[in-house]
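Task: sequence design from structure.
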């Protein structure tokens, strides 16, 4: 069962609470604080391209990469008029990233790193990002913390729009270090009847120190951690952490 095959068409409607402009502004200010000038930027695991669009509209030349063709179809349609140079979209997995040339920065947001559920695979993904970054380039990403994922165990969530609703059921396995989301997506068809689709999503509970080590092994340096949409170090119990790492000049 492939993630986001059913959910893609309704992803934007059912996640309308995600403040993409706020996240884009945060990333741009963080880059500025780290001394990074605007340039060609990769949105890794771009999904339906909402963040890609926000960055493109702020003058960044963008490439979006995602492994879901359904999500990329939504992204391409959404970004037809985004920025002076419309973003390019590629269907690839993180660990097999293969660009046409180098990039100045890479962002990977909304806990996409957690979706890589094998540390060895994530190490290869970090290595691929490092390979295509220009010397001095920045890599920014966020994660759901282990504390947050453990706290989701046994919880049920409901997202709904006018013609769709989605029921999420979360279970956390301490042994596997994985939070599994079973999703039922109900859609109102043109016939007036409801159809049902199912998806299974998994997120791996990476410890921050573990991620720092993977980044170092991939060749990154100047690794920093930040609280969610903050410019300070994370505090105990925060549900989301941002990372910044640089490829040496």
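Answer:
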């Amino acid at each position: 069962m492939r993630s986001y095959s059913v959910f893609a068409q309704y992803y934007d409607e059912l996640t309308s609470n995600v403040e993409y402009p706020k996240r884009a502004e945060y990333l741009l200010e963080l880059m500025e604080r780290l001394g990074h000038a605007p340039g060609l930027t990769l949105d890794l695991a771009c999904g339906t391209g909402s963040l890609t669009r926000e960055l493109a509209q702020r003058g960044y030349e963008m490439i979006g990469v995602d492994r879901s063709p359904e999500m990329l179809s939504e992204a391409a349609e959404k970004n037809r008029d985004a920025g002076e140079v419309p973003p390019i979209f590629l269907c690839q997995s993180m660990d097999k990233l293969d660009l046409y040339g180098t990039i100045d920065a890479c962002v990977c947001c909304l806990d996409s790193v957690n979706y890589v559920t094998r540390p060895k695979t994530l190490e290869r993904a970090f290595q691929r990002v490092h390979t295509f970054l220009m010397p001095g380039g920045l890599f920014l990403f966020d994660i759901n913390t282990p504390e947050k994922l453990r706290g989701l165990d046994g919880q049920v969530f409901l997202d709904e729009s006018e013609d769709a609703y989605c029921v999420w059921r979360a279970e956390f396995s301490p042994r596997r270090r994985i939070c599994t989301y079973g999703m039922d997506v109900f859609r109102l068809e043109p016939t007036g009847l409801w159809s049902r689709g199912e998806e299974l999503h998994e997120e791996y509970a990476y410890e921050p120190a573990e991620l720092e080590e993977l980044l170092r092994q991939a060749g990154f340096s100047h690794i920093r951690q930040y609280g969610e949409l903050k410019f300070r170090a994370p505090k105990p119990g925060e549900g989301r952490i941002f990372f910044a790492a640089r490829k040496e000049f």
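The chain has a mean pLDDT of 93.
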